[in-house]
TrEMBL record:
It comes from Selenomonas ruminantium. Mg(2+) binds at E190, V471. It comes from the Bacteria. GO terms for molecular function: NAD binding; NADH dehydrogenase (ubiquinone) activity; nickel cation binding; oxidoreductase activity, acting on NAD(P)H; quinone binding. Pfam families: Complex1_30kDa, Complex1_49kDa, NiFeSe_Hases. Its cofactor is Ni(2+); Fe cation. InterPro entries: ComplexI_49kDa-like, NADH_Q_OxRdtase_suD, NADH_quin_OxRdtase_su_C/D-like, NADH_UbQ_OxRdtase_30kDa_su, NADH_UbQ_OxRdtase_CS, Ni-dep_hyd_lsu, NiFe-Hase_large. This is Ni,Fe-hydrogenase III large subunit. Residues 9-126 form the NADH:ubiquinone oxidoreductase 30kDa subunit domain. Residues 271-425 form the NADH-quinone oxidoreductase subunit D domain. It is found in: Cell membrane.
Amino acid sequence: MADWSLKVVKPENFRGTANILSNGGNNPLTAMFGRDETENPEVKGYAIYAVFENLSEHKMEAVKTVFSEGESLCYESLTSVIPAAVWYEREIQDMFGIVPKNHPDPRPLVLHDTFPEGFYPLRKNVAKDVEVRGSRRMDMSVAKGEGVYEVPVGPIHAGIIEPGHFRFSQAGESMLQLDARLFYTHRGLEKIMEGKTPDEALPIVERICGACSIANTWSFCQAVEKIAGVKIPRRAEIIRTLLMEIERITNHVGDLGNIPAGVGFNPAISLGGRTKEMLMRLQERIAGNRFLRGVIVPGGVCQDIDSALINDIADIMDKVKANVSDLSEMFAQQANFQNRVRTTGIVRKNTAVDLAMVGVGARASGFAHDSRKDFAYGLYPELDFQLVTEKTGDVAARLALRIAELTESFGLVEQLCNLLKADKSNDPSNLTCQIDWSNVSGEDWGLSESARGSNFQFVALQDGKIDRIFVRSASYPNWPALTIAVQGDIIPDFPLINKSFELCYACIDR
């Protein structure tokens, strides 16, 4: 995977340099994050990184600005020229106290109204086990006018789902505006991992999201392996890529059962749920648990997939393929279902590009953005598969895209299983290489394509210990698009639109 080019500029030049790297929005903003470097004698201040994907050249380009000790912690906001920066800048302000001047929405994002003003948890002088209580103002954004009323939903919901508060502004049945307040269960994972070795941090990384264990672990391992200068064994790369595609299939199949739940389409719900259970049991056979944890480690993988298990994977995939085909027919044949999903929850391509959306949310709107194609990692450069897109950007497009991507993933699993069978280097010593972290220092990034889109991680090591880790899940850049997608639709369609994105709450509450 390509390294990145990093420019370091003064705060007054940060916005202009970022705008140049953005290239008029053609290079998506992959991530933006802060870092406390007050203990670094060469810096003695706070830093902000903005990372862009140069899709035409298949490389990452980044700009960093440093606020030296005693300097004002302010800079000109990027959001007006790079809309995708909107959440990142609010989070950096919450976590580090670095203020984006002229930001269009300077409200707190992550730290809710029970946190005190002036508390910045990712600064080094804040202890990991600190307990704080306080208050700060957190207003919801609502539309005003005659005949406009508010409908609050959550944060506690009727189903067993994670907490999120949604405030709808309505005129009649139409949703004029939606404001979402998330981050109710912020876990402080990035803070917890400070001072740990990559091996010690790995169990935490695996648990950032229950549905994306492989994607998060692979991104993390890419970053620390590049810092350590390690190239993992080929068989480990095959296994990592295979597990990634199995995780993608499991999540996409689960989504095929969850999306029709938004309209009570029970036969599809049942078939989707039953099929996902087959895949979860397969994952348990592969890894010893239902979430594929404990297989990928820094330096490779810690267990093999033998020929008997390869045959079992092929058998399960044949059954899953048949069920996905049945689901596809069920969706196509139900006129009432098609009426609900077509032209509902539209995200236009220019919106997807402006917000630097990823995964299904981006590709369903015609934004051909997939890290498996954009960056060479794992075995993907050797494999035959197509990048699938849709154009209409509605619920129907997001559903159709998942079905089409499943076909590609079934083909990838077959290719990878054949590669494993053909590979004779299945000695345990050919699965991983040991890394001595004691003198390893540096910073780098990792990226992998989860079912929801690309997962990005930045890791900085100092003498083998994590000085800073930043995790940007695929859900993070897609959540702001939900508030746009609902505009003009009726409120009973919100569950359907929400499920069609299948965004995660926990993985942004890191």
